[in-house]
Amino acid sequence: METRMKRKEKRQLGAFSYLYAGLIYLFLYLPIFMVVGYSFNTNDNNLVFKGFTLHWYGAMFQNRSLMSSLMLTLELALVSTLISVVLGTLAAIGMHRYDFKLKKTLDNMLYVPIVIPELVIGIASLATFTTLNITLSFWTLVIAHVTFCVPFVIITLRARIAGFDKSIEEAAMDLGANQFRTLKRVTIPMLMPGIISGALLSITLSLDDVIISYFVTGAGDTTLPIKVYGMARGKISTEVYALFTLMIIITILLYLLFTAVRSIGAKRQS
Questions:
Q1: Which residues contact 63 (CB under 8 A, 6 or more apart)?
Q2: What pLDDT, on a 0 to 100 scale, did the predictor assign at position 6?
Q3: End-to-end CA distance of the chain
Q4: Residue 261 Ramachandran class (φ > 0 left, ψ -120 to 50 alpha, else beta)
Q5: What is the pLDDT of residue 86?
Q6: Which tens digits make up the pLDDT trace of 83-131?
Q7: How far apart are CA 179 and CA 157, in angstroms?
Q8: How far is CA 48 from CA 37, 51, 231, 240, 269, in A?
Q9: Can you give the pLDDT at residue 162?
Q10: CA distances, 14 to each of 4, 5, 20, 27 (Å)
């Protein structure tokens, strides 16, 4: 009898756990499902779902303003990510390998751009460019994005470097490789998973940024987040929902591809 009671309690607990987990996932993914659903809406104002159509997926490519903002955002994300990954990787390796004065202070300062509100960083960046008489343009956007992306790259790489075996580098040097060749052929390949993670985090932050970009963007340089933010005050076109749905699908496919490549690499190493 007691065994049956325990089994019943376990079943009830299991059902409650599944229900609780389902509600959590519904809370997290319901907005995404809403975006995907409304991208097929025949109604342009998205207040009421009237019917199913694929019209907006073709119409978004005809919207020159939307496509221009998208191209600018992608270009900005790629350029700022490339610079952030190069600077962040070199900085992480240097801070791990060498000891110097104020290293701990510099190490702690990496968290400043992370914990400071984006509003403060945006105003500070604008004040700096104005003081230096730098005209706001695409490159001021790049500088601002690199500023808050580099710390994330360095912190992400730290976890990988912490378990790095220095004896492998020493063995490469004993075999005749100089420091640059060791860095290129040994160190960077071993840190590649951390570098890729930092790059993905950096490009995500750059694509998503609104506040900092708003302060340092030049005339005519309107990124996609700023454009959508401006639309939110009036009406967000269904073309935007279609574009975001396409971005979600591409992101999922890239994640699946990355996971598959990593699994294949792990099997080959084993």
A1: 237, 239
A2: 60
A3: 49
A4: alpha
A5: 92
A6: 999 999 888 888 877 777 777 888 788 888 888 888 898 999 999 999 9
A7: 20
A8: 11, 9, 18, 16, 53
A9: 73
A10: 15, 14, 10, 20
Residue 184, token pair as written in the block: 């290129």
Dist CA 70 CA 119 (whole Å): 23
Q: Environment class of residue 196 by beta-carbon count within 10 Å: exposed (0-12), middle (13-18) or buried (19+)?
A: middle
Q: In which residue are the tokens 């730098």 written?
A: 134
**Two tokens, residue 63:** 């919207």
Q: Tokens standing for 231? A: 């639309």
What distance in Å separates the CA atoms of residue 5 and residue 12, rounded to the nearest whole number? 11
pTM, 2 dp: 0.82
In this predicted structure, what is the pLDDT of residue 53? 84
Report d(CA 61, CA 70) in Å as an integer.
Answer: 11
CB environment 114-145: b (16+ within 10 A), e (fewer): eeeebeebbeebbeebeeeeeebeeebbbebb
Q: Is residue 146 a contact partner of residue 83, using CB atoms and an 8 Å limit? A: yes
pLDDT < 50: residue spans in the chain: 2
